[in-house]
Amino acid sequence: MSNEIEIGRGKRARRVYTFDEIGIVPTRRTRDPELVSTGWTIDAFQFEIPVLGAPMDSVMSPATAIALGRLGGLGVLNLEGLWTRHENPEPLLADLATISDPVAALARMRELYAAPIRPELITARLGEIREAGVTVAGALSPHRTAEFSETVIGAGVDLFVIRGNTVSAEHVSVPGREPLNLKQFIYELDVPVIVGGAATYQSALHLMRTGAAGVLVGFGGGASSTTRATLGIRAPMATAIADVAGARTDYLDESGGRYVHVIADGGLGTSGDLIKAIACGADAVMLGAALARATDAPGGGWHWGQEAHHDDLPRGARVQVGGVAPLEQIIGGPAHVADGTANLIGALRRAMATAGYSEVKEFQRVGIVHAER
Question: How much is the pTM?
Answer without folding.
Answer: 0.92
